[in-house]
């Protein structure tokens, strides 16, 4: 599969940072496992990573909270998502958790994912909103230890997740 990228998030109120030259969604096929992977920027500016498994996979249609009981998965922050393609996804703008299948590729993938919006994960959209509140509250503590998880980081985590999921198939 050819990699596809989309940019759709309004970043006009964000500070400048590592996210400036990143897209907001990337879809690719992991070379090692042949599983479809996706990185999608969440509403607060942090990345979320996903791997799609086909209907024959043993974790297909299994909620992420149950997956840990069946197969402990190690990924940034743990699994936080398991769902079919979002019904409101837009293949033109790229918004939403879904993929554009290649010929012969299943379109009914089950997406297992993680997010980089945990404690100490820098979320540029959230930071912009909090900046508006700084006059009322001292929020300086929030940025002392935060780290932005880049697209490259999320791609590596998605590949790691794909390897674990492929091993279970």
Verbal overview:
The chain is an alpha+beta fold and 169 residues long. The protein has one domain (19-167). Helix content is 21%, strand content 18%. The protein is built from 3 helices and 6 strands, in the order E-E-E-E-H-E-E-H-H. It has helices at residues 64-70, 124-133, 151-168; strands at residues 4-6, 25-29, 36-41, 47-53, 81-83, 110-115. The chain has a 6-stranded antiparallel beta sheet, with helices on one face. Strand 2 (25-29) and strand 3 (36-41) form a beta hairpin. The radius of gyration is 17 Å and the shape is globular. The mean pLDDT is 87.
- As for the number of domains, it is 1
Query: How many angstroms separate the termini?
Result: 21 Å
Number of strands: 6
Overall pLDDT score: 87
Sheet with the most strands? Answer: 6 strands, antiparallel
Beta-strand residue percentage: 15-25%
- Helix-and-strand structural type: alpha+beta
Helix content: 10-25%
**Topology order in helix (H) and strand (E) letters:** EEEEHEEHH
Shape: globular
What is the count of helical runs? Answer: 3
Strand order of the largest sheet: 1-2-3-4-6-5
Identify low-pLDDT runs.
none
Gyration radius, rounded: 17 Å
